[in-house]
Prior knowledge:
Rossmann fold; about 750 residues; Isoleucyl-tRNA Synthetase, domain 2
Amino acid sequence: MPIKACADKLRFEIDTYGFAPGLANELPEVEEPVSAAPAADASGEPAKFVAKKSKAVAKKGPGNTQWSIMRMSGIPEEDIPLFADAQHWLRFFPPLAVRDLDGMGCGIDWRRSFVTTDLNPYYDSFVRWQFLALRERGKVIKDKRYAIFSPKDGQPCADHDRASGEGALPQEYTLVKLRVLELRGPLEAFEGQGEVYLAAATLRPETMYGQTNVWARPSDPKRPDSDVGLYGIFKAADGDFYVMTDRAARNLSFQDFFPVQGEVCKVGEIRGEELMGLPIAAPRSPFERVFVLPLLTIRMDKGTGVVTSVPSDSPDDWAALQDLVNKPKLRALYNVPDEAVLPFAPVPIIDIPGLGDMAARAVCESMKITSQNDADKLAAAKAEVYRRGFDSGVMLVGPHAGKPVKEAKPLERAELLRQGLGLAYAEPEKEVRSRSDDDCVVALTDQWYIVYGEDEWRSSVSEAFERMRWLDAAPGADSASSATRGQFEHALSWLNQWACSRSFGLGTRLPWDPEFLIESLSDSTVYMAYYTVAHLFQQGDMYGARGAVPAECLTPEIWDHIFLGKPLPEDRDSAALPEALLRRARREFEYWYPLDVRVSGKDLIQNHLTFCLYTHAALWGPEKMPGALRCNGHLQLDNQKMSKSTGNFKTLEQALHEYGADAMRVGLANSGDTLEDANFEHDVANQAILRLFRQAEWAREALDALPTMRGGEKAVLALEAARAASCERDAVEILAASDADAGDAFWDRAFANEMDAATLA
């Protein structure tokens, strides 16, 4: 997908600006149509043409277009248009990688190299076998679940498809339906047409028993025309109306909330200040009605922009409510009547050992928090209260009174949804941008998933951790000291079902559902096994264009024999598939597996590398799990992240040209190799050139001086006698006695003795 996204980006630039070798870095912003899946525009009006300014061409810097990135990578401008075809990338770059790695002096068995898409029919066959084997074991299912999704691409956006937000997962909320009791302002237009709700997204459904008010964000007086404090009014598929941000509605449009997938139905707008003082019926609240109050710290890019208020349990709510209680001028500023604030005292709902039943107040007082503007202190207070409440808090109210919070939480959410008092809602836990420059959403997608996180499967991987070697563990210490192992255990704790299919891109098609491609983090989890036999079938051709046997003859049953030791199928084409070749392939796999060590980048721990362990466990069990794992950080250049968009990057070819292989390798060795990011320093590599030159000059001088050096038989016996002597005087006398025959042997032996002592020290 990264290759396809870059190719598509280049195609868009060429279609927009034409073939222009002088394409400038500073390009005008253009209206780029958003295709693939239907979506709402910025105003949210349905069924309207959608356009947005292309980030790719609006971005500033030396590499702000795909064209300029290609040019900076050394591609001749007349050849750049060829890269609008994604397949051209696969033909062009792999041979250059071979050239540059050879130039570095790396010893690599290139016979076993291969590309990993359906361009290589042999590897394509191997991946189809892998997924068939996983499906037979019940590890691949089809279901409708939340996934990070690119509306522009019309498919889930996996980690490798993202320009930013790698590792982000869907964050599931409960959307609490806060019914408006009196319609005012822009809401009056919907009188009698259906219920009107404020939609509040919460992660704490069990706390709804303590609601004293609802928060909304007023407009920013310094930026009255901004979207801060601007809410949309949306008509849902159920016929009711909901007030929330445009961003939240866009997410919901891919979660069966509106009549048409990907299209919002926006019917109006309302400013936050117009909501102030609005009476609300809040589910589970002990008050018949509560009111909308102003909260200036609400983020319009998180949740729905509407927030429930539980001041007994939330330090933010406690501080903000106290500001309104104690500051009449603040109430007057937003036209909030006293009766909307003063009668509503915090309601105890959870008892937390050490904090009591008014935890928010207790922590705010202990941390001396006096205002909602104490942002840093409030963040720490919130983390403390929520952590302790979840770990040891006990419910005081509701049908689950007496139960631990961690048990009551999912039960309360399920009941809110069942009773129609709330809705399920999800959004990315942080901003995710696709490589096609799309702001991703969370969508309910009906597609294929790998069931990572299954209890028995997870346990088999966890048990393997004890048997594996962790190469960054402290010498002599238990493997628990390994930072790498700690990150794998964390990934194992949360990794769950993973969307493994997509609609377009490069890769292998699902063998039982060829409408879908296997996404790039899932189709190469056990390619190490394929290394063991690639040379036998592909005969050294990385594309598999001139193989030893027809690729179509490598059926799942043949791969079962090679990798699982099952009997050879009797109906195979023995002429096309000689038994001797297949038995040799089986021996190669058995010889090399399990692999001794798997080395890769730390960014892949949370997905690809953990997938690798899961898949090994599913296909081969504990006896074939990797022997060790070693992970490294990213490579920086002069303490800055390497980035083509900023111009701070070097290709291998450029580095070899500038420093030479030896000096570059010295610079890399000096960079570091732990989980921390390594730093390649230009000055270190430059200094290495001079030092290596001096070393070479010294060696030449020493070799040139060989003819002038003395020769002769070494006084070996004298040396042994000297070493055996019991005192220095005896050694001197023995060696002196041999001087007549050995010339300067005494000083030679004395030097050798000192060198021996230094070496053994």
